[in-house]
UniProtKB/TrEMBL annotation:
Binds 1 zinc ion per subunit. This is Adenine deaminase. Residues 11-326 form the Adenosine deaminase domain. It comes from Limnohabitans lacus. CDD domains: ADA. HAMAP family: Adenine_deaminase (MF_01962). Pfam families: A_deaminase (PF00962). Belongs to the metallo-dependent hydrolases superfamily. Adenosine and AMP deaminases family. Adenine deaminase type 2 subfamily. The keyword Isomerase does not apply. NCBIfam families: aden_deam, PRK09358.1-6.
Length: 326
């Protein structure tokens, strides 16, 4: 059976990775020491033991605590560089990295330190491994739209160092329409627009991400399965869904990987892609997501090619790069 070798070697794009979610416990402790930040965990093993999540919020609490060790431009660089080393090993040719500036600026970290550190790592990854990489600035949906608008304005001096905006954090109770104005502004600025929708939230949140935010991709979107008209809309428009199976498993969206609806979404003709979300917290990078999901759902080589091709198609790379990778 040569499927695992194919899954590993295929050139693929990763379109749903929160770079703060790639921060491994070892790097969290190294940065805490370097920056003199106190952590409420004795050591790496104690932190790792705390990674037992019951839902999205139980994860987010630890994810924001972990990010508190990031203070300086070099910290952001080192975090992204560690991710690119994994991505290169997984044959990722294109990566679109989410980052959460509000998590950092709220602690007094300069916007420039965040964006410049991450952007420098993107450039160096291109030079060292030929990975095409860009940044997507995400708004925290548990905060206000005014806070998001101020964050977008604050990032404008670095407009050429990110390609789009996204929407993440606690979904239920914070529907996409809460961010209608800031997404309209982002679109006016020529930024790409994506949003998390239908991870834990209802199909209605996917409809409003499409119709009100006018997103170009839906992040997660797995709850679409409960709405036949929405499934038809997504299929007919070839709207990409950035699905993250190991994330869904760890956050108890599905009871087991065998229960995941990826196979049904592929069968329904959706433009599904596979991604790692927060690999340091969810137990695997991109190839782990491919390997474990294919094993659990008994997917085949044709579906492997389909998912990899979808990831390239759904990316915001140039048409010439896409052509080169297909
Ligand atoms: C996230 Cl899994 C997930 N969902 C929503 N927001 C997030 N931020 C980081 N990981
Ligand atoms: Zn996510």
């Amino acid at each position: 059976n040569r499927l695992p070798a194919l899954l590993k070697a295929m050139p693929k794009a990763e379109l749903h990775i929160h770079i703060e979610g790639s921060l491994e416990p070892e790097l969290i402790f190294a940065l805490a020491q370097r920056n003199g930040v106190q952590l409420p965990y004795a050591d790496v093993a104690a932190l790792r033991r705390a990674y037992a999540f019951t839902n999205l919020q139980s994860f987010l609490d630890l994810y924001y605590a972990g990010a508190s060790v990031l203070l300086h431009e070099q910290d952001f660089y080192d975090m992204a560089w560690a991710y690119f080393e994994k991505a290169a090993a997984d044959h990722v040719v294109r990566a679109e990295l989410f980052f959460d500036p509000q998590t950092h600026t709220a602690r007094g970290v300069a916007m420039g330190a965040v964006i410049e550190g991450l952007h420098r790592a993107c450039r160096d990854a291109q030079a060292k491994w030929g990975i095409s990489a860009d940044l997507i600035l995400c708004f925290l949906r548990h905060l206000s739209e005014d806070d998001a608008l101020a964050t977008l304005e604050e990032a404008m001096p670095w407009r050429d160092q990110f390609i789009g905006v996204g929407l993440d954090s606690s979904e239920v109770g914070h529907p996409p329409e809460k961010f209608a104005r800031v997404f309209a502004r982002a679109r006016e600025l020529g930024l790409h627009v994506v949003a998390h929708a239908g991870e834990e939230g209802p199909p209605a949140y996917i409809w409003s991400a499409l119709d009100i935010l006018q997103v170009q991709r839906i992040d997660h979107g797995v709850q679409a399965i409960h709405d036949a008209a929405l499934m038809k809309r997504l299929a007919d428009s070839r709207m990409p869904l950035t699905v993250c199976p190991l994330s869904n498993l760890k956050l108890c969206v599905f009871k087991t990987l065998a229960d995941h609806n990826l196979g049904q979404m592929l069968d329904a003709g959706l433009c599904v892609t596979l991604n790692s979300d927060d690999p340091a917290y969810f137990g695997g990078y991109l190839n782990d997501n491919y390997l474990q999901t294919f094993a659990a759902l008994h997917l085949n080589a044709q579906q492997a090619y389909k998912l990899a091709a979808n990831s390239i198609e759904a990316s915001f790379a140039t048409e010439s790069d896409k052509h080169h990778w297909m």
